[in-house]
Amino acid sequence: MLRRFLSLFLTLAAAAALTGCSAAPAEEGEGVSVVTTGFAAYDFARTLLGERGSVELLIPPGSETHSFEPTPKDIIDIQNCDLFIYTGGESEAWVDDVIESVGEGVSTVTLMDCVELLEEEAVEGMETDGEDAHEGHDHGDGEEYDEHVWTSPRNAVLICEKIAAALCEADPEGAEEYEANLRAYTDRLEELDAAFWDVVGNGVRKTIIFADRFPLLYFARAYGLEYYAAFPGCSEDAEPSAATVAFIIDKVREEDIPVVFHIELSNELMADTVCDETGAAKRQFNACHNVTRAQFDAGVTYLELMWDNVGVLKEALG
């Protein structure tokens, strides 16, 4: 469906430009225009860009990122921006059609190209959607990879380095400012990384449990954590089987787990059930894939959300 309409939308965009009615995110003279798909990339870009332009988040706050489909305006904004930043992977398969249609004139940063990728996995007790659950995650080489690369602060540093380099290329006059912003932000990410290491190093356990999807493989691997969860990170399922719920409840009891996690924008029903049965505390762990409208309007940042995670992780491992 998307491919069918792309040609029409882009033709209309070209006609609008010829009549002086460009639909670009930033008007001429307002600086660099950046378009991103996910919240983490949006926050990285606005931090590095500073006052030298504008950043647009395509996926609406509060919405499900894995089922997003771009609007005609979104496609035109991508065509007209200076830099387009997206994650890659199955949940953004639509991007390939857009990039192919808008041509090579759009500069891009793909988050999954910035880091060493981890193959997706299903741990004991986890439900999957079947053998085709992750079809499309192969990233072009036949292997299936997890998309949520930004959940590790060290990966965030690598991603920001690529974004800063792309901004320098798009706006050479601002290179010194972008590089200074990158250095300052890297320091803050390294401080966050050190805080997570401190929590893990001083914890009495190394296991975390999510009565939810688990889009935090990069985070868990970064800090040597074991985990159990109901679903993989990109699962389309929302209702766990009785067997999955029973497995999670038994695991919480067996390992005397004090905290059961859910991720942001979850219905929290399974977490409620597990906590009611075990007496564990329910806590939110932010995967930073999206935020609520209220958080977005208040200007919440990746760092703020991740520092919240430091606190709840300390409670879970203590």
Automatic annotation (TrEMBL):
<dbReference type="GO" id="GO:0046872">
    <property type="term" value="F:metal ion binding"/>
</dbReference>
<dbReference type="InterPro" id="IPR050492">
    <property type="entry name" value="Bact_metal-bind_prot9"/>
</dbReference>
<keyword id="KW-0732">Signal</keyword>
<dbReference type="GO" id="GO:0030001">
    <property type="term" value="P:metal ion transport"/>
</dbReference>
<protein>
    <submittedName>
        <fullName>Zinc ABC transporter substrate-binding protein</fullName>
    </submittedName>
</protein>
<comment type="similarity">
    <text>Belongs to the bacterial solute-binding protein 9 family.</text>
</comment>
<feature type="signal peptide">
    <location>
        <begin position="1"/>
        <end position="26"/>
    </location>
</feature>
<dbReference type="InterPro" id="IPR006127">
    <property type="entry name" value="ZnuA-like"/>
</dbReference>
<keyword id="KW-0813">Transport</keyword>
<feature type="compositionally biased region" description="Basic and acidic residues">
    <location>
        <begin position="131"/>
        <end position="142"/>
    </location>
</feature>
<dbReference type="Pfam" id="PF01297">
    <property type="entry name" value="ZnuA"/>
</dbReference>
<feature type="region of interest" description="Disordered">
    <location>
        <begin position="125"/>
        <end position="146"/>
    </location>
</feature>
<dbReference type="GO" id="GO:0007155">
    <property type="term" value="P:cell adhesion"/>
</dbReference>
<dbReference type="InterPro" id="IPR006128">
    <property type="entry name" value="Lipoprotein_PsaA-like"/>
</dbReference>
